[in-house]
Amino acid sequence: MAKGPVIVITGTPGTGKSTHAALLANESPVPLRHINVSEWVKERELYEKYDEEWQTYTVDEDRLLDDLEPLVAEGGLILDWHTCEAFPERWADLVVVLRCDHTKLWERLEARGYPLKKIQENNEAEIMQVVLEEARSSYAPEIVVELESENMENLESNVTRIGGWITTWLKNQESS
Ligand SMILES: Nc1ncnc2c1ncn2[C@@H]1O[C@H](COP(=O)(O)OP(=O)(O)O)[C@@H](O)[C@H]1O
């Protein structure tokens, strides 16, 4: 059986990456392992330090990439992270960038208990489409897809659409 693709799901924090990844892992036509990269970094202590001011970890990217490389080689992976430019271009078969209206995003981050400064920073990043630009400058345009993640209907249709893409990808792998 063909191994599964490597799908990067990225977007500003709160856009719905983990929600999409969990549903996709459940509904995918081929088994996919969901790696929440932020959690992975914490669990495996792949960071240099904890930044108190921003309440985030400064990731040790070299160690992170070494750690993920064997999993990527196996395939069948969802990499869920708020940034994507650190990953080697060859890793990704598909890069999904989730987008959300900034007032909705603000509410989601507030509900998460983020400090105001962090909400403002992320909100601004979403308005300026920082993650989308990052994805577009790091990967071939044909593998980058921008999807709206504002409501449950978006969530369901996005996951169905990515599932359809996986089915085609598998067929292409078999015939090549
Ligand atoms: N498409 C969506 N429609 C409605 N709520 C969503 C959607 N995507 C995410 N959410 C909600 O927004 C919050 C943040 O989602 P999450 O998946 O944790 O975001 P991320 O992983 O990008 O930080 C959660 O409460 C989740 O239920």
UniProtKB/TrEMBL annotation:
<feature type="binding site">
    <location>
        <position position="18"/>
    </location>
    <ligand>
        <name>ATP</name>
    </ligand>
</feature>
<keyword id="KW-0698">rRNA processing</keyword>
<feature type="binding site">
    <location>
        <position position="112"/>
    </location>
    <ligand>
        <name>ATP</name>
    </ligand>
</feature>
<keyword id="KW-0808">Transferase</keyword>
<dbReference type="GO" id="GO:0005634">
    <property type="term" value="C:nucleus"/>
</dbReference>
<comment type="subunit">
    <text>Interacts with small ribosomal subunit protein uS11. Not a structural component of 43S pre-ribosomes, but transiently interacts with them by binding to uS11.</text>
</comment>
<dbReference type="InterPro" id="IPR020618">
    <property type="entry name" value="Adenyl_kinase_AK6"/>
</dbReference>
<dbReference type="GO" id="GO:0042274">
    <property type="term" value="P:ribosomal small subunit biogenesis"/>
</dbReference>
<keyword id="KW-0418">Kinase</keyword>
<feature type="region of interest" description="NMPbind">
    <location>
        <begin position="36"/>
        <end position="59"/>
    </location>
</feature>
<keyword id="KW-0067">ATP-binding</keyword>
<feature type="binding site">
    <location>
        <position position="16"/>
    </location>
    <ligand>
        <name>ATP</name>
    </ligand>
</feature>
<feature type="region of interest" description="LID">
    <location>
        <begin position="111"/>
        <end position="121"/>
    </location>
</feature>
<keyword id="KW-0539">Nucleus</keyword>
<feature type="binding site">
    <location>
        <position position="17"/>
    </location>
    <ligand>
        <name>ATP</name>
    </ligand>
</feature>
<feature type="binding site">
    <location>
        <position position="19"/>
    </location>
    <ligand>
        <name>ATP</name>
    </ligand>
</feature>
<feature type="binding site">
    <location>
        <position position="14"/>
    </location>
    <ligand>
        <name>ATP</name>
    </ligand>
</feature>
<comment type="function">
    <text>Broad-specificity nucleoside monophosphate (NMP) kinase that catalyzes the reversible transfer of the terminal phosphate group between nucleoside triphosphates and monophosphates. Has also ATPase activity. Involved in the late cytoplasmic maturation steps of the 40S ribosomal particles, specifically 18S rRNA maturation. While NMP activity is not required for ribosome maturation, ATPase activity is. Associates transiently with small ribosomal subunit protein uS11. ATP hydrolysis breaks the interaction with uS11.</text>
</comment>
<keyword id="KW-0547">Nucleotide-binding</keyword>
<dbReference type="GO" id="GO:0004017">
    <property type="term" value="F:AMP kinase activity"/>
</dbReference>
<dbReference type="Pfam" id="PF13238">
    <property type="entry name" value="AAA_18"/>
</dbReference>
<comment type="similarity">
    <text>Belongs to the adenylate kinase family. AK6 subfamily.</text>
</comment>
<protein>
    <recommendedName>
        <fullName>Adenylate kinase isoenzyme 6 homolog</fullName>
        <ecNumber>2.7.4.3</ecNumber>
    </recommendedName>
</protein>
<keyword id="KW-0690">Ribosome biogenesis</keyword>
<dbReference type="GO" id="GO:0005524">
    <property type="term" value="F:ATP binding"/>
</dbReference>
<dbReference type="GO" id="GO:0006364">
    <property type="term" value="P:rRNA processing"/>
</dbReference>
<dbReference type="GO" id="GO:0016887">
    <property type="term" value="F:ATP hydrolysis activity"/>
</dbReference>
<dbReference type="GO" id="GO:0005737">
    <property type="term" value="C:cytoplasm"/>
</dbReference>
<keyword id="KW-0963">Cytoplasm</keyword>
<dbReference type="InterPro" id="IPR027417">
    <property type="entry name" value="P-loop_NTPase"/>
</dbReference>
